[in-house]
């Protein structure tokens, strides 16, 4: 092994190890590895930057803009709602319709976006059938991953494999060339989930064990143990808190307490018929008055400390009365989910000015089953976090319309449904037309596939489906874009130093005894094992060049082998952190990691066996 090869292998191994470790951003790790290869002279400047100009990278970036226009338009909402209407009936029928809907939409649109849109709809349908949403949300996430392999643009590995096969002069794949084996993989996944997978779904997830099968507002309060932390305090006239603005008291930070609402006596000049206590939402600019009765949320010792400091008096209350008042026709309680790539990710509620923006209080955070109820305001949010919020229904409805950063997964008022801002009344038709044009261009192959996608992205901006170029840039998830570009450079270094040839020769010696089916199964298995730990299908970048050389050495067509790698890299099902879809449904469905591990591994093995037997029927060895 030469010194450049040793350095390259060391950098590649360290990069993959750090990505699996998961403490740092994957794109940052890959970029550091790429820069080191450039500084050591193993990569020239042109080779180091080549990945960033690669058609695959540009295509993936443009697809984020296309997806943004589609979701902004409301097209997916309408299609998803329409398809799910056919799920009326038995649990088996609804499960089938959920998977078909999620899978078919993910073939053309972002799988994560599809899951974001469908979670509230699926939860609502499950609750109406008096069933736990956890019976459907995990199959929805799996269907989005399986359905994405149906088309050329469904996943990054599909695009990458297509580019490699075309650049090597082997074959040019069109838009629907992945569809036959994609349908086989999707059908296998559906069959598994309707049979063995259905039996493996948790019968009593965390939400069900806490008596929230209907996820009503009162039941959410019970699950989070909200009622045990509610306290009424009376403000006497001589208290130093009188006249203070709520924002100036900094109660969440000084006392770890949230002031939820204020009961205030009506003015004396009002008519006797109208003289009663009014309930006021605790807004940041609200000034406290004498004889106000404040409802606070926090630990007993912290509330007692507040009462002593400001000479406040405890006010006893009937627990049943507070339950009726806390969740009423005016005030409500619900959960919201932080979406992937949300502007709120890694921010605190204080940074977001959540209370000022939405006039609602965050009482607790559910992070993968762990309930955070202290120092909520300073906790940095992560994707998949569920926030328990309390406020007036009209303000909760405002949150439900903010689909760019979060989605409502619990109950709001009975009339609340997902709302999406339409840029114009004909936006869904325009978005559908642009998507159809892109599909036609990709299908006939008259122009390069990257140009077809870029044209669609530009049309989304020009027609207003994406409101501006600034929004277009914001909608691009730069982590996978930069990660893929950097990993292409690292693998290029492995090729230049002879590492790819060396590894492929080792594989060729081993798989020479197994035959072509063994080669296909071996690369599928290796890719499958790495995919849950390395995000965005990057395993395909590493495995594809090795498989290509190994196939050529053994005199086997590389097409079926690379097809298997594309699917194995796309379908990462055995980890809740493998895909954003998995992360989202883990919180929304109250799953545990073991639910993904057992189900995901069995499903991937089953799909893999079916594919090893069927891929050669479409793409012979």
UniProtKB/TrEMBL annotation:
<keyword id="KW-0677">Repeat</keyword>
<keyword id="KW-0812">Transmembrane</keyword>
<dbReference type="InterPro" id="IPR006037">
    <property type="entry name" value="RCK_C"/>
</dbReference>
<dbReference type="Pfam" id="PF03600">
    <property type="entry name" value="CitMHS"/>
</dbReference>
<dbReference type="GO" id="GO:0005886">
    <property type="term" value="C:plasma membrane"/>
</dbReference>
<dbReference type="InterPro" id="IPR051679">
    <property type="entry name" value="DASS-Related_Transporters"/>
</dbReference>
<dbReference type="InterPro" id="IPR036721">
    <property type="entry name" value="RCK_C_sf"/>
</dbReference>
<keyword id="KW-1133">Transmembrane helix</keyword>
<keyword id="KW-0472">Membrane</keyword>
<dbReference type="GO" id="GO:0008324">
    <property type="term" value="F:monoatomic cation transmembrane transporter activity"/>
</dbReference>
<protein>
    <submittedName>
        <fullName>Tricarboxylate transporter</fullName>
    </submittedName>
</protein>
<dbReference type="GO" id="GO:0006813">
    <property type="term" value="P:potassium ion transport"/>
</dbReference>
<dbReference type="InterPro" id="IPR004680">
    <property type="entry name" value="Cit_transptr-like_dom"/>
</dbReference>
<dbReference type="Pfam" id="PF02080">
    <property type="entry name" value="TrkA_C"/>
</dbReference>
<keyword id="KW-0813">Transport</keyword>
